[in-house]
Design brief:
Helix content is about 40%, strand content about 15%. It binds 1,3-dihydroxyacetonephosphate. 1,3-dihydroxyacetonephosphate (13P) binds next to helix 12.
Length: about 375
């Protein structure tokens, strides 16, 4: 039996598909509006979807006990940062957090929605060893995903996230790893759109290693090409998704640092080659970059001349949260400083999404109105 990949299909494609499936954005108005809102001018996403083990590691590094309630209190601090809604369009939650509530009793998804912030949800179940390919992983979570998506939609989520992890070094990544992860990302994205959630497609090429910036560009180029091929094959509507890629940076152990301009130019070049103009937004992960550098890179990318058919913004985890977590340190009396630390990074990145960030913003004091949650 031959594979049907070369049969004539709908719309001149190469794969037969039912009339209801397709790449047309018509009938997807709700998803298009959510995607557009997530990349509204000057705004970006807060990734607060660390799993319990990951957040526990971050807490323990600072001597903060990790309990259901300490994690809840930390997330409440983030979600009530002053003027967050001015620059945060959406927050990515995870399974524990989407079911938790603020101390007032208001469930987190509603707390966010009341501020005009769109709740989202991490739905992959993690990167697991890829059989036959030592040192590589494939992200799992497709089994039962349709039902989980429906449940999360019921809990108030309007978008979702799935992170694939690609490691560079010793001949890696293999084609097997890139294709397996691209396929899973595309299956996830198609299921999200079926269930009325905007998929954030996150193929992360890790910074771990001593490779140079050129290797990161080559690998990211190949990964994004595979991801968009897979998205096309699965009939994902590009207009109703967002891409969350890494920036093009040297490995963290690379002896040759790259200038901000070099990172920005390589990143934009790679994206222009690989990301179709139909995708409404590209929202970067921070990937372990220094927080201020992640802001400076985003700013420079947005300042570069030339065509940028997508909105370019942020969906940072560590680069938004690290300063806030440290300022809080697990103590109630530090909640206002924790909120302010998050708000500062959010404001700086909001400005960077417009190419309007400057070093002076790092010193700027919040105005009185921004203290409203502290009193
Ligand atoms: P970082 O910005 O810390 O890389 O986290 C973003 C994210 O969502 C990783 O999946």
């Amino acid at each position: 039996m031959s594979i049907s990949a070369n049969e004539p299909g709908q719309g001149g494609g190469t794969t037969a598909r039912p009339a209801s499936a397709g790449r047309s954005p018509s009938g997807q108005e709700g998803l298009l509006a959510v995607a557009a809102g997530l990349v509204a001018r000057g705004k970006g996403i807060l990734a607060a979807d660390e799993t319990v083990p990951t957040l526990t590691r971050r807490f323990e590094a600072l001597g903060i006990p990790s309990t259901q309630d300490s994690r809840r209190a930390y997330r409440e601090m983030l979600f009530t940062a002053p003027a967050a809604a001015d620059v945060i369009s959406g927050v990515i939650l995870q399974d524990e957090t989407i079911r938790q509530s603020a101390s007032s009793g208001v469930p987190f998804p509603q707390l966010l929605a009341a501020q005009g912030i769109v709740p989202g949800i991490k739905v992959d179940t993690g990167a697991k060893p890829l059989a036959g390919w030592p040192g590589e992983t494939v992200t799992e979570g497709l089994d039962g995903l349709r039902d989980r998506l429906a449940e999360y939609r019921g809990l108030g989520a309007h978008f979702a996230k799935w992170r694939a992890v690609i490691r560079i070094g010793d001949g890696r990544p293999s084609r097997a790893c890139v294709e397996a992860n691209a396929h899973a990302l595309a299956r996830y994205a198609a299921l999200c759109q079926e269930q009325n959630l905007v998929p954030i497609v996150e193929p992360e090429v890790l910074m771990d290693g001593a490779h140079g910036i050129g290797t990161c560009e080559d690998v990211t180029d190949a990964v994004l090409a595979a991801v968009f091929r897979a998205l096309h094959e699965q009939g994902v509507v590009l207009e109703a998704m967002l891409l969350k890629p890494n920036m093009i940076v040297p490995g963290e152990d690379c002896p040759e640092p790259a200038a901000i301009h070099e990172v920005a130019a390589a990143t934009l070049r790679c994206l222009r080659r690989q990301v179709p103009a139909a995708v409404p937004g590209i929202i970067f992960l921070s990937g372990g970059q220094d927080a201020r550098l992640a802001t400076a890179h985003l700013n420079e990318i947005n300042r570069l001349p030339g065509a940028k058919p997508w909105t370019i913004s942020f969906s940072y985890g560590r680069a938004l949260q690290d300063a806030a977590l440290t300022a809080w340190g697990g103590l109630d009396e530090n909640l206002p400083s924790g909120r302010e630390a998050l708000a500062l990074r959010a404001r700086c990145n909001g400005a960077a999404s417009l190419g309007a960030y400057s070093d002076e913003m790092e010193q700027a004091r919040p105005n009185a109105a921004q203290h409203r949650h502290d009193h």
